[in-house]
## 1
Amino acid sequence: ADIRNAQDYAALAPHFMPPAHYAYISGGSGHGQSVAANQTALAQWALYPRLLRDVSHGHTRITLAGEEHAHPLLLAPVAFHKLAHAHGEIDTARAADATDTCMIASTQSSYTLEETASAGGARRWFQLYLLPRREDTLDLLRRAEAAGYRAIVLTVDAPIQVANRRALAAQFQLPPDVAPVNLRGYDIAPRYAGNGPGDSRFFQGAMRGAPGWDDIHWVMSQTRLPVWVKGVLHPDDAAALRDAGVTGLAVSNHGGRSLDGAPSGLDVLPAIRAAVGPDYPLMYDGGVQSGSDLFKALALGANAVAVGRLQLYALSVAGALGVAHMVKLLREELEICMAMAGCATVADITGKALFKPAR
Amino acid sequence: ADIRNAQDYAALAPHFMPPAHYAYISGGSGHGQSVAANQTALAQWALYPRLLRDVSHGHTRITLAGEEHAHPLLLAPVAFHKLAHAHGEIDTARAADATDTCMIASTQSSYTLEETASAGGARRWFQLYLLPRREDTLDLLRRAEAAGYRAIVLTVDAPIQVANRRALAAQFQLPPDVAPVNLRGYDIAPRYAGNGPGDSRFFQGAMRGAPGWDDIHWVMSQTRLPVWVKGVLHPDDAAALRDAGVTGLAVSNHGGRSLDGAPSGLDVLPAIRAAVGPDYPLMYDGGVQSGSDLFKALALGANAVAVGRLQLYALSVAGALGVAHMVKLLREELEICMAMAGCATVADITGKALFKPAR
Amino acid sequence: ADIRNAQDYAALAPHFMPPAHYAYISGGSGHGQSVAANQTALAQWALYPRLLRDVSHGHTRITLAGEEHAHPLLLAPVAFHKLAHAHGEIDTARAADATDTCMIASTQSSYTLEETASAGGARRWFQLYLLPRREDTLDLLRRAEAAGYRAIVLTVDAPIQVANRRALAAQFQLPPDVAPVNLRGYDIAPRYAGNGPGDSRFFQGAMRGAPGWDDIHWVMSQTRLPVWVKGVLHPDDAAALRDAGVTGLAVSNHGGRSLDGAPSGLDVLPAIRAAVGPDYPLMYDGGVQSGSDLFKALALGANAVAVGRLQLYALSVAGALGVAHMVKLLREELEICMAMAGCATVADITGKALFKPAR
Amino acid sequence: ADIRNAQDYAALAPHFMPPAHYAYISGGSGHGQSVAANQTALAQWALYPRLLRDVSHGHTRITLAGEEHAHPLLLAPVAFHKLAHAHGEIDTARAADATDTCMIASTQSSYTLEETASAGGARRWFQLYLLPRREDTLDLLRRAEAAGYRAIVLTVDAPIQVANRRALAAQFQLPPDVAPVNLRGYDIAPRYAGNGPGDSRFFQGAMRGAPGWDDIHWVMSQTRLPVWVKGVLHPDDAAALRDAGVTGLAVSNHGGRSLDGAPSGLDVLPAIRAAVGPDYPLMYDGGVQSGSDLFKALALGANAVAVGRLQLYALSVAGALGVAHMVKLLREELEICMAMAGCATVADITGKALFKPAR
Ligand SMILES: Cc1cc2nc3c(=O)[nH]c(=O)nc-3n(C[C@H](O)[C@H](O)[C@H](O)COP(=O)(O)O)c2cc1C
Ligand SMILES: Cc1cc2nc3c(=O)[nH]c(=O)nc-3n(C[C@H](O)[C@H](O)[C@H](O)COP(=O)(O)O)c2cc1C
Ligand SMILES: Cc1cc2nc3c(=O)[nH]c(=O)nc-3n(C[C@H](O)[C@H](O)[C@H](O)COP(=O)(O)O)c2cc1C
Ligand SMILES: Cc1cc2nc3c(=O)[nH]c(=O)nc-3n(C[C@H](O)[C@H](O)[C@H](O)COP(=O)(O)O)c2cc1C
């Protein structure tokens, strides 16, 4: 099969994974409204080609919170890469290294953060989920620091696990050789169940263990690494997190896997950019499958863009090579859009580069 | 079959009822435009997740016109529960009791209001249709009072019966063991036929027997129970009813079963809220099948939300247990939405919690 | 088969006519864009039910340009009723008579205007096409006067015949027993062909024979009957025709059978009403198949509404009885909408009765 | 098969060409978003019929940048006509001649510009692509002048070739007898590859060879022929090109074959017209398949309209005769729209002739 565009990996993936794995990965929470919203939001924009501009000095380099990146594409934190390929995160890390891409390793990886770190390059960040006990969270943080991760991405948008109906229908279960190996030895049983009389298992259960502002401050006080917060969709939350001293934000609806019915991050990105000011670091993820998707998110206010599922799709098709190829294609597709839109640098990509047809 | 969401009962119901019953229940009047409008209206909204808020004291309790309810979900008045399950209203009442849910028993029930009352809990309201003769209406009202119903919901939006085309196509007929047993002994033959020369059977027939303002005043004068009016869609009608001293209103297009072509109550809810002021009790029904549907209606101005068809769907699948399970699921789905939207109480759910993607 | 709504005749008609006849009747010009626009335009509106209003004195009577009508529904001029049923216009006229409906007989009828007149009741209008020669047009007009037609409806929106692609694909041809019998003995060969050097067969052909302002004045000067003009879509044309002394206008895109790509009359009706003032007589036609369609057109500015295709559909299914039944159903459907919208008279039906959901 | 409308050639073409050729011609770049946008943009407009206007002096003649044309329809530059028919550009040129149509011969033609010129009539323009070496470009320009081409259309919107996925999927390759024969003897190997360390093959490759402002000035300085620029979509580019002294612009997204995701030229045409002023020559192309499409583009600001694919479709079906017939049909369809919209001349076609239904 011919692979011409990054998106082709999405079409091929179902042929390279057990159906239940594919259902789990591709699905979203509930009825998949927020998954669909991510695609609809991207599809409504067109790109203005611009003529005769000299972009022969063009490049995709960016500086993100002080750090240089070869291009604005990151690998979003995604759990259990082994579901897509036996080499799992090891291969993803190799591909990230080969393509100068920053990989954000998930707390819920199927190889340990140390294994992933030693397989990959220097550009690596760690996605942190708060564990029920602070001492465990701290240990995880210290291990990430020790393994050379350069930034912490604290994901706070999933205090409650909402079922993925497609995964359930396909009777998805973690296979025996796939587990959240980073968490071995920690006490990860939820501390609150909310099963007292009159209790809600959400309000008095899960939400009692959910991240709060004190956790944000605590994490920042425990590390010198830059701390990003992932999962922001409301401009007021964005402004408050910026005010709290967080390094940057990932505007994301968790790939439509958290609250079903949440808007696409793309639709709220301009309002969030307006709320945090022009210079505050924002990352976008959700539904990105092409260079023009990347371009649109950058134009609407993101400084960088992460892909989630597409990593696993490419990994399933061809392991490290697949991921590296997918990244290369996406980057080239972005370069084509930039060149044709007359944007020599990522900073040149602004809202003026987009056109919204009135339908 | 796995039931994960309240909505799953809607998908299963056709397998648990005779096709003609299902057609009658699921269908709407005419060509079903207003049934469809209810779903379209709900689907156009997204919910803003909010981060890091402490909702560990959260709960779903509300006070509705002075009465405490464990949650803002009611069972809408629905005729002939026996069509879905032999235990009919008896089982629904049991489920309502078990889940602290207020059941609004229909005038057109297939078990008597007294039977339903003795099967259920304390939280019960009675939906009243005006009968052709006032003495019969009064008798019905007195029986409802005697049976401990705590509020009257006077339905006024169906002065003319508009055919349900799907039911007709399926040749639906009431089976011999299903009848409007509450009405036994009353004279329910329409008093006006409109068949004089030049007469319209609607203007000079049905509409002559239709509820008028005098009936509203008369009902209120005959009972100490709170009187709600059900079936309001126009802000001016809402304001006039509030001015007339009615306790509260059910904003509803009768599940798309009255005037085909009527808007969804959801689309007019904000204007009605604006017309009646912030504190006047409003209930919403129409198309609700999930916790996020509930959340949306609450955010757009309702104080409580009722489900119609979903009761019968759950009843058909598993009797009392099904209804109780459906209510539990809906409530949990609402709690998840509230928790993730950072709303600790129903009062926290406002229009600011919603996002409308510009498409 | 059960017929519950006027619209059911549309569904049944294909089973009661040769496919080519059905293609000719149901189709529109070109690719059918304007046919589709008529339905889309109607579908975008919802109707506000209103509560508790006394409409027991309600009726559908209207006065149209000084003439009383039992209801605001007319039978639009439609060519060749024989294509639908051997009794053709004779049966339509009988049905119109039986239902107190004004039939607008087409110039291109398959029974003569005299035959149609003697079969029908007193309420009949004549649709006039200008013939190539004035003396023939005048003869036709005199015959219509003599046969007791009470108004002239001058159709001016079809100066060029645009092919009906569906009819062509079905190889439609007029059968031998169907012909424009009114025109026998007239010279109906087009007077202009536009085939000189550099000539366009449209500009220098058909359009040279097209109706002009002088024709409007000439027709009005030749008859004492009220003269309506049919086929208006632009507000400026409407205002000019009113200023010219025309009795009233039919806002119509000719059922999507003239310029393909013309807007639906419904979409332009409010602007035309605004242009001609509140009291000037306007008729609407295009896509009407139900009482709520009628209601919508009345609410948006029409004083009366005509149906085209539905006549032939009903005629094909059951002759005079079918047409009479269709009219009765439509009228009843209108009465239901009026009663439920709290409109006792047609004059009560205003734009305030409609709601347009923002999608 | 019956051919009634120009558009019918589009439906027939797949039966007259190898599938791979059809895929290459009909497809667009990437996922075909811009191809689709061209049709959506046209479909959203309706045309106002106008009544009773005298258009018997009507005609389609226009003056375009000082040159008289019998009608506002041009044949857009399209590569390799031999893919559609063995006679290729020769037959197209004959058809153009027979129908008084201006053919814009492509640099990438499959017969030489000299062969095409001698087959056709006097009204011919030449579409120029800049070649890697200026001396070759100049030679091509001189040949076009010598062969009697009357204007140069410099295409600048395709600095990067974006793959046509449908052509790739169909494994399209140029057959041995089809080649860019105009370029024989020139050095057409790209001068820049962008394969130094850290180089992008787009920024430091293709874009280094892309047309710049200096090229525009250089071409204008090398010829006395009027110079049009093709491929403009942004109003600022349009204004700058006008200021640079370019004769006129082709507003075009290259038939959706360049940047996938570019807007339709139709959607940006009004803004471009506003930017360049009322009198500056603008051509439109993209998606045009009917007279009403032509009319819409003229109404939205174009002075002339070109068709691309439809030429090849007609050519494939019936060679020169097909193209001539297609042009005749399109012109007649335009005349019908003009006549019915009351526009006697192309100048009468303005934005006021269009209606945009609010959906
Ligand atoms: C299978 C899967 C697992 C994920 N696991 C995590 C995770 O462990 N931590 C996290 O912050 N986000 C996780 N995400 C969300 C991604 O980081 C990202 O927000 C999302 O995938 C972006 O949408 P996309 O997949 O459409 O590109 C996961 C997403 C998927 C699809
Ligand atoms: C089968 C059926 C019977 C109903 N009977 C009554 C009734 O007797 N009285 C009443 O006020 N509403 C009745 N309704 C309307 C409901 O109270 C409610 O307005 C509607 O069902 C809400 O829409 P939903 O079914 O989409 O939730 C009925 C609805 C259904 C589906
Ligand atoms: C088969 C057919 C024949 C028609 N013939 C005429 C005609 O002779 N004169 C005329 O003014 N309109 C004619 N019309 C147009 C109708 O008067 C009317 O404008 C149109 O049918 C209304 O749209 P509807 O068919 O969707 O109701 C014809 C329409 C149809 C469908
Ligand atoms: C097969 C094909 C080849 C084309 N080749 C050229 C070309 O050589 N030069 C050019 O300027 N445009 C070229 N175009 C673009 C056309 O000039 C024109 O912009 C486009 O086809 C208009 O869209 P339409 O095909 O929908 O009418 C080509 C288009 C097609 C379909």
## 2
Amino acid sequence: MRISELSDATGVPVPTIKYYLREGLLHPGEKVTARLTEYDDTHRQRLGLLRVLREVGDVPVERLGQLVATAQSTHATAHEMLAAAAAALAPTPPEPTEHRAEARSVADALIDHAGWSNVHPRSADRDNLAGVLEAIMRFDTHPSDPAEVAPYLRAADEIARYELWHLRQDTGRQGLLEEMVVGQVVFGRLLGILRRLAEEHYSAIRFGQVSDPADASATYDGP
Amino acid sequence: MRISELSDATGVPVPTIKYYLREGLLHPGEKVTARLTEYDDTHRQRLGLLRVLREVGDVPVERLGQLVATAQSTHATAHEMLAAAAAALAPTPPEPTEHRAEARSVADALIDHAGWSNVHPRSADRDNLAGVLEAIMRFDTHPSDPAEVAPYLRAADEIARYELWHLRQDTGRQGLLEEMVVGQVVFGRLLGILRRLAEEHYSAIRFGQVSDPADASATYDGP
């Protein structure tokens, strides 16, 4: 298909497609004549991914470039490719503070407690976890006791298992990467929104006298 | 305590405290003499909240102002106060597109399916949910069938119930608001990081031949 048809098929404007081509985020089409370049389904698929990441995931262009580089490199295992993609998507860990070493120990202990033994010792998310635990400890609303974060650990564990065992197997490494990245970004956003909606609902039951709180506690089966 | 002691106690620099005072994000201290103003535990607590929101939640200053206004107004019920806070923290819904009406119907149906009947008809998160569902439908990696998103619905439901029934009751409305806001922002961030860590772990089992995949499927108890 021509660039204009590619634009219609994906909803990505032609100037944006040209920008992605210049930046190397989209691979070149096949030059048929001096004035005609053909694009195919691999271009349509990549543009769909880029559009979702930009619109929903709010992933900056530099990160998109890292992801594309990951997709193009040949890593030893699919896991290494996925880990590289996750690293490209992970936020930059917060600046270390005087309590960071302690928080990092708590973070490592929590990962052990969850049984996530395959998390790399140098995974950036270990420091991200330490940063957020430090904030929790500082505010001391909740202690950083594994029991306090148990519902979050359990939810993360269940969701990750569901996600990894529901990836389609027939799409090849490139398809696998794209599915993982969309899952990471878009379903992460979905989870955050659903949690806020559920909080709104249960806050009404708990504090709004909208329903009978006795009913609510009857359906609540403990932490 | 003096402003310098308040700074030491909270780790917030004196110029930042002065900025928060000017912006009305922090209530004035008590003027003891022309040159001495006393601050107390309410100031320490508010600064702790502001620090956490700025550092971990990455909440912009304008949103902080909305939150403080919410804390200071006297709403009819605690639920209304919490809903106003959640609205201040919710992201701006994405621009509507040609498929938004359809996505919004899917979003409303999903909220009904979850049983979250107390979500306000004009809650901004209904449009946020429509926006993310539209992205999912467009990319068509996963259909927007309630069964496909069931693990996310269940996790959101369990976490929200845990959170609402574990808020401390002895801190008054101001304390309740602060706890809810920190919970929303900081524990939301925590959940996102834990999910990525769990994905890294299970990706190694699924795709890295780190452990025996047969073991992994034995411990996996279905979606």
